[in-house]
User: Fold this.
Amino acid sequence: MASAATMPDGTAASFPDGTVDYTPLRSSAKDLRKPHITEFPITLNNWYKHVNWLNTFFIIGIPMLGLISAYWVPLQWKTAAFAVFYYFNSGLGITAGYHRLWAHTSYKATLPLKIYLAAMGAASVEGSCRWWSRGHRAHHRYTDTEKDPYSVRKGLLYSHIGWMVMQQNPKRIGRSDITDLNEDPVVVFQHRYYLSCVLTMALIFPTLVCGLGWGDWFGGYIYAGILRIFFVQQATFCVNSLAHWLGDQPFDDRNSPRDHVITALVTLGEGYHNFHHEFPSDYRNAIQWWQYDPTKWMIFTWKKLGLAYDLKQFRQNEIEKGRLQQLQKKLDQKRATLDWGVPLEQLPVIHWDDFVAEAKNGKALVAVAGVIHDVTDFVKEHPGGKALISSAIGKDATAIFNGGVYLHSNAAHNLLSTMRVGVLRGGCEVEIWKRAQMENKDVTYVND
Amino acid sequence: MASAATMPDGTAASFPDGTVDYTPLRSSAKDLRKPHITEFPITLNNWYKHVNWLNTFFIIGIPMLGLISAYWVPLQWKTAAFAVFYYFNSGLGITAGYHRLWAHTSYKATLPLKIYLAAMGAASVEGSCRWWSRGHRAHHRYTDTEKDPYSVRKGLLYSHIGWMVMQQNPKRIGRSDITDLNEDPVVVFQHRYYLSCVLTMALIFPTLVCGLGWGDWFGGYIYAGILRIFFVQQATFCVNSLAHWLGDQPFDDRNSPRDHVITALVTLGEGYHNFHHEFPSDYRNAIQWWQYDPTKWMIFTWKKLGLAYDLKQFRQNEIEKGRLQQLQKKLDQKRATLDWGVPLEQLPVIHWDDFVAEAKNGKALVAVAGVIHDVTDFVKEHPGGKALISSAIGKDATAIFNGGVYLHSNAAHNLLSTMRVGVLRGGCEVEIWKRAQMENKDVTYVND
Ligand code: HEM
Ligand code: HEM
Ligand SMILES: [Fe+2]
Ligand SMILES: [Fe+2]
Ligand SMILES: [Fe+2]
Ligand SMILES: [Fe+2]
Assistant:
């Protein structure tokens, strides 16, 4: 928000590892040793001190005024078309500029493209690029923790807008390294002259276009200016809220980021946020051609036009590895919920003679692969008929079961293992332990 | 086909295990010791001997005649409606009767239901239930092998219709146990009087309905009789062809059966054939409520009406185990195609001092979890900035990498492992081998 304009100019002391502390806004005016307002609970007496009134005015107040004024200003279709067009451009200023270019350096831009992006970013009124990127890097570094400036763990509304309209304790926000941004003249210029940039690009420019273009000064100001700002803001805020709340987690489910096409549609393609948090320096958010990522398409177009270069991509191999491990994790969770029969190591060890004797005494026991199975309840249900399975009682049916008479399906092997009651002393151990490995192998991984 | 009617009546000698040999049709008339025609290649001189002319006439000849006659017989809408209705009923005779009731005994039926199903099965003209079930059990037992009566390995057309219109060597077809069918009076009756049953149910009955009902004798004969037979035949043949050819293999991909909704639509729900071959005695073919399996819905309705009982279902646990193992298998195949870095056991073991010395000499080496990584090419690409990663060169960065400074993502761990160049002597071995287990654990399973 505009409040960033009042920040000291990139001269905060750096830590030896290159990161800088989050310098509080208007730090000179306030005493840092005094406890911050956020350290007190919200009460009826102090609640207004918890609100960041400047931000509230910019994010909620102005749009309200715009909405009310719109009642008296008719919407011309040329103005409407320009407002939509300008909406996309200013949105790209945030997604392709602030986010993918500056916060993540996922590609390099030539000077003209940088100027365009910084200008469009200002037109969105979401704070200076320098301020935004610092917060965003902290968000990636400390995702979902106390140090995450817009942690969704504090609620969807908080991550969407609360973190701006409520006072923040600057000491809480994590540190991040923005030395590269301090060296970028476009970023530094936009930061230094932020308020002028915002006024020019967010309000004056769209008013001029509509006024000089087709005489709709008021419409340009209200629709292409104020209301367009409101929509761009709400849309891009969704990256912090919706993208951490709605959808799947194909790459990692330890943190909150999620992939969803709805978020993508709202945010010019930033909706594949699980991918993005896992591979933040990839210039793409969507990796499939059929997924909606216009920001990626624009960056790619700029590359073809010679305006962008060094587009970074994670190797497909790394991406597939991540996807595979997440699938594996889900499979292992599922595996742990299923009944795989009594673990072999908990079964009694039985002598061959005892096995034969018990089977003679009427117990329907069948040995397969060194394990003894009680098939009493299954004989009449056996899909291969009573006769065949009965013929194996009291015998080692390993070979018949595995192709000698019928090559049983995997399902039959699974079913068999739920019937096991003992291990043959000196049975075919290789088989036994192979099977054990297959069934339990991932349990260790789950418990890791 | 009708040829089954000429088979000897269920008196073939049984093997001790309860199975019976495939008794050739008209065995008394032919000398079994003479080489069978299928043992000779097809030539211009003997091709007609390879054709089973009786079956060909029933499957292709009669429908042709029907199609031609239809030209002169106008189709009345009542007759059309009845033909469709009768199509579904006779189709159920095969799917719910021949297939799920008799071949797989997946549920039990009361006498009235059995009579209805046997009658409708006859109306489909696909051979007696006894003959059909024996072949079908052999198909399940010897799926895709030489002994499978309609193995899709011999081509899609063969599995669809070729196995009936071409002569078969009876010695080739696998044995199966049908003692239970020989004890079922309905099955035995239908087998003994098969030709009469077929004539009555396939032709006379529909002709009578349409003739007595609304005077359309010819239409009933042509549309509800002959052409309806043709469509039912072609549809149910798809279980042997399409269901082994089109679709996914969610439970087991070692054999040909596949799941596909198109096959299901054509075959009254028999299209979830991968499931079916894995769980043949389950009265369902589709296990999800939203999948198309009208045969299952009918059996369930009959149960509610008290006509069917003892509906068999595999435990959901067993089904999920099968699905999980198949997913695991695919995951393992995928895993084997990815680059997981040089296996740890192939890396040189390096002393701590050598590591530090090499790093001092300008090599960008970082130790993490007992493994040494060469990050030279990665420093400038590091999403966390050059400064941070450089600060770890020549050091053990295990703690910083794992949360001390930043808790790296799984993707970062994967990437890291592609950069490894050595193992630290006496490094934290537990970590090393844990990792190795996680990466390679399923390779053994794949090679099983
Ligand atoms: C010992 C426990 C046994 C279990 C748990 C078992 C389980 C099964 C299962 C689940 C099937 C369905 C098809 C499949 O999944 O592959 C099946 C089919 C079959 N079983 Fe078994 N079976 C056992 C023993 C035997 C024995 C000892 C024989 C032979 C002597 C045998 C012969 C067959 C045959 C021939 C079929 C094929 C039936 C068909 O597909 O039409 N089974 N068995
Ligand atoms: C040794 C090899 C290293 C590799 C392969 C590596 C890899 C990565 C990767 C892939 C990311 C992107 C985010 C993620 O996947 O978690 C990342 C981010 C990060 N790395 Fe590293 N890293 C390495 C070393 C280090 C070291 C030694 C430090 C600190 C001293 C460090 C600090 C960070 C930080 C702070 C981020 C977060 C950046 C952000 O999200 O804005 N990394 N690293
Ligand atoms: Fe995020
Ligand atoms: Fe990001
Ligand atoms: Fe089949
Ligand atoms: Fe079947």
